[in-house]
Amino acid sequence: MFVEIKNLQYKYKNAIEPTIKDFSLQIEKGEIVSILGESGSGKSTILRLVTGLEIPNSGSISINNRTIFDEVTFIPPEKREVGMVFQDYALFPHMTVANNIKYGLRKMSKKEKKERIDEMLSLVNLSKYRDRYPYELSGGQQQRVALARALAPAPSLLVFDEPFSNLDTYLQIRIRDELREILKQTGITSIFVTHDQEDAKVLADEIIYLENGKTIWKGAPDNLLPYTQVNRVNQINKKTF
Questions:
Q1: Per-residue pLDDT tens digits for 18-72
Q2: SS3 for 118?
Q3: Do 192 and 32 contact (CB within 8 A), yes or no?
Q4: On the CB side of 63, how many CA atoms lie within 13 Å of its CA?
Q5: Burial of 123 (0-12, 13-18, 19+ CB in 10 A)
Q6: Which terminal residue of the chain, N or C, has fewer Cβ atoms less than 10 Å from its own Cβ?
Q7: pTM reported for the whole predicted model
């Protein structure tokens, strides 16, 4: 198994209850998994644990047969080979598109960096925009630059935290189709966090439904809607009686 998370537990310092409760996940190489849930369900916290921005209380995480966290191991974030695309894209405003992508390519020669930048720009269809600055781009173009920057160092795993939240509906629909195509083209293993069912259904090979820090359902995208409809009815019934 390419990514394996076992029995992850996490509680924020001043919280009464754990945010993540016995969370486990297995991902095959090249698979896209979406963690779906309402605000406060713990889905973004899982990404922070995987990337090393938070430290689990217990459990284990391995990527590509390499343990990055367990009871005796903690690999720091910069050595995990995990790329992240943030909600706000986190592009450097004073850098051109090309230099934003170049930022993470520290172990390459000058020639290798140029070739990799050209490759990434072509992949996200932004070759003509290499010398522009983020403020000169649309929201969709900025999102593609953020994706290219995350892909450039060839991470083992790529994670996304609500990457479409700042896009209007039209761009959201177009970009998510493009994103799945790019991820499948590169073959990179991905975790995609969202509260939007349509995003999860379009992008994911498998969906994990998270509630109060626990997995309450997982399965193929085609099976998501009937499950969530039944779950919503059950919640309404609980409130009614």
A1: 999 999 999 999 999 999 999 899 999 999 999 999 999 999 999 999 999 999 9
A2: helix
A3: yes
A4: 24
A5: middle
A6: C
A7: 0.87
